[in-house]
Amino acid sequence: MRAVIQRVSEASVSIGGKVCSRIGNGLLILLGIEEADTGQDIEWLSGKIARLRIFNDENNVMNLSVTDVDGDAIVVSQFTLHASTKKGNRPSYIKAARPETAIPLYEQFVKAMEIHLGKPVGTGEFGAMMQVSLVNDGPVTIIIDTKNKE
């Protein structure tokens, strides 16, 4: 499982010109799921993201988590995070999970994030063509891969 976590002052997801999720201060999480991912990946990653100290404290030092600042989150499924560009110029997505595997794991991840944050989490729509807008605050962007634990 791979995640691109962006600290945002605002973010939204639209489908067909209609906004389906919008947040202010918080995290935009792009989530890539591969066939080998399990519930253990979900628990480790959701906990890591919820505790990630990337928000500024009163001394302007990144020392607070999204839960510390009562921030919100949007989780967007993004199979292209598992693109392989090793061979040729057309990316291969062979490692990305098929929908029958990815959808339940995506839904479990969203629920896990809701439990960690203690509030609803915004989403896109799995498999839909989405437009994601954000104001990256900092900019702060962190990439985490559960297979490398980094």
Overview of this structure, please?
This protein has 150 residues and is an alpha/beta fold. The protein has one domain: D-tyrosyl-tRNA(Tyr) deacylase (D-tyrosyl-trna(Tyr) Deacylase, Chain: A, 3-Layer(bba) Sandwich), CATH 3.50.80. 21% of the residues lie in helices and 37% in strands. The protein has two helices and eight strands; from the N terminus they run E-E-E-H-E-E-E-H-E-E. Strands 1, 2, 3, 6, 7 and 8 form a six-stranded mixed beta sheet that branches. The protein has a two-stranded antiparallel ribbon with strand order 4-5. The radius of gyration is 15 Å and the shape is globular. It starts with a strand and ends in a 5-residue tail after the last strand. The mean pLDDT is 96.
Summed up:
The protein has 150 residues and is an alpha/beta fold. 21% of the residues lie in helices and 37% in strands.
| Helix fraction bin | 10-25%
Q: Tally the structural domains.
A: 1
* Intertermini distance: 11 Å
Which whole number gives the mean pLDDT? 96
Total number of β-strand segments? 8
SSE string: EEEHEEEHEE
What low-confidence regions span 5 or more consecutive residues with pLDDT below 50? none
Full CATH superfamily name: D-tyrosyl-tRNA(Tyr) deacylase
Write the topology of this structure.
Blueprint: E1 2-15, E2 18-23, E3 26-32, H1 39-51, E4 55-56, E5 62-64, E6 72-77, H2 99-117, E7 122-123, E8 130-145
Parallel strand pairs: 3-6, 6-7
Antiparallel strand pairs: 1-2, 1-3, 1-8, 4-5
Helix pairs in contact: 1-2
